[in-house]
Recover the amino acids of this structure.
């Protein structure tokens, strides 16, 4: 059995119908411009021919050539109007594409805002703002204190508390320097045992 090969899926084209329409209009515009250039060249030739015929005394033929030239000029005027219409259509289509992209961006932005509003209500925002303001004010009070911004009442309170702590420190009993009786007895017992061991180690004479 032969191995079946799966063809890769064709990616969807990003070219929209509006893009195709704009491209076709621009191609038509370019063709009209080329046509105008061709007519301008022909008009100049007809003018030179009419001038030469008039110089040769062929007035009727010169007049006929000038009529032809005038007809060519009328074609230029018509193509000018067509070019203006095409340019306007191209502008309108391109601008509509921009508007569609802007609308899509606004739509996505609005959806994102709705999701944010579902997560965080107005009450939550107000509460957060109040807490933030309280924290800022509290920190400002600390900064003022550290910066020496105490009032006279604050200074008096600090001095009064310092005096109270000083009095408490002076009222504390002195720390005893003598050892406790239990510790003294334990030391004497260990010293007696040490002297007894040393006496046993001395040989009898």
């Amino acid at each position: 059995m032969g191995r079946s090969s799966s063809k890769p899926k064709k990616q969807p084209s990003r070219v929209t119908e509006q893009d195709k329409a704009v491209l076709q209009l621009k191609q038509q515009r370019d063709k009209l411009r080329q046509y105008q250039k061709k007519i301008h060249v022909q008009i100049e030739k007809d003018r030179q021919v009419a001038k030469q015929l008039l110089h040769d005394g062929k007035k009727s033929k010169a007049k006929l050539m000038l009529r032809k030239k005038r007809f060519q000029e009328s074609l230029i005027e018509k193509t000018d109007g067509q070019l203006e219409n095409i340019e306007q259509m191209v502008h309108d289509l391109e601008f509509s594409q921009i508007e569609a992209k802007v609308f899509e961006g606004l739509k996505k932005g609005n959806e994102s805002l709705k999701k944010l509003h579902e997560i965080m209500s107005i009450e939550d925002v107000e509460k957060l703002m109040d807490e933030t303001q309280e924290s800022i004010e509290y920190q400002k009070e600390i900064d003022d204190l550290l910066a020496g911004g105490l009032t006279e009442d604050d200074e008096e309170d600090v001095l009064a508390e310092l005096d109270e702590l000083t009095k408490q420190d002076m009222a504390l009993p002195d720390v005893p320097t003598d050892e406790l009786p239990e510790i003294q007895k334990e030391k004497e017992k260990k010293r007696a045992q040490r002297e007894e061991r040393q006496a046993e180690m001395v040989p009898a004479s």
Summary: The first helix runs from residue 17 to 55. The radius of gyration is 54 Å. The chain is about 80% helix and 0% strand.
